[in-house]
Amino acid sequence: MPTTFNNFQNILPDPNNSIADAGQATGSVKGPGFSSVSFTSEQKVLKDSTNSGRLLARAKAGHKWKMKISYNPMTRTDFEPVYNFLMHRRGALHPFFISLPQYRLPQEAAFAVYSATNKLEAQSSQLAGVTSLMIEKSGYSNTTNSTPVPGDLFNIDGANSNHKKAYMVNRVETSEYYQAGTTAPTSSQVRIHFTPGLSKAVSTGDDFVFNNPLIKVIMTGNIQEYSLNTSNLYSFSLNLEEVQ
After folding, report:
1. pTM above 0.85, yes or no
2. Once rounded to an integer, what is the mean pLDDT over residues 72-86?
């Protein structure tokens, strides 16, 4: 009996994201792991100074993450799922998503377990450009479930389906430690500071996703090239940059 599926795989195949010959995400073929990952934060800034030395600076373009992915030498069985997934994207024409192993789970084990099955939500609406906000969840406890920590990556899943930006936590205020003169988080809240500022407005109740955050990317070049050695092993790497 024929088998149908709903969606093609849109995440670069890796040990946690499989793909099959029809392109479905439920296949048994897993992509190879990365041998190395170079991760870059790019924020272009215009800067100048007055005669007195006062700094004048402003961002002149939006923020983006850049990645260089390298693989160990691969057999053809390992190589083809990755290469043909990328060939299907036709260079930079069609974006896809990537799951980076170092950011797949939050660093704090108790919070990783909690956030895998529970959602943390925006406590109030916020405009684009904001670099900190309060998130909360009914029943959430900073003591028993810990918190996100600086260095965790997250996405926002909410009313705006085009909000695909990836953000990185820089600071976390809790009910125990928070900046003087600000509203104290309750035991079910944390105030997170993050980079970059919100690329789009956030609505009350939008979900903050810390487990397996994805980065929407394209390949930076128009040429895909690999090399094959005398042992029939494939060498391959790719450069990616975030897009919205």
Report:
1. yes
2. 94
Cα separation, 64 vs 66, whole angstroms: 7
Which range has the worst mean pLDDT, 23-32, 95-104, 126-135? 23-32
- Give the Cβ contact number of residue 37 at 10 Å: 14
Tokens of 171: 């600071």
In terms of Cβ atoms closer than 10 Å to its own Cβ (0-12, 13-18, 19+), residue 58 is exposed
Contact 70, 35 (CB under 8 A): yes
Judged against a pLDDT cut of 90, whether residue 200 lies above it is answered with yes
Tokens for 156, please give them. Answer: 């926002």
β-bridge pairing 215-219 and 96-98: antiparallel
CATH number for the domain including 70?
Answer: 3.30.200.190
Helix or strand run (H / E) with residue 117: helix 109-117
Tell me which DSSP letter residue 196 carries.
S
Q: How far apart are CA 67 and CA 167, in angstroms?
A: 15
Please report whether residue 9 resides in a domain: no
Look at the chain and report how many structural domains it folds into: 2
Longest C-alpha distance within the chain, in Å?
78
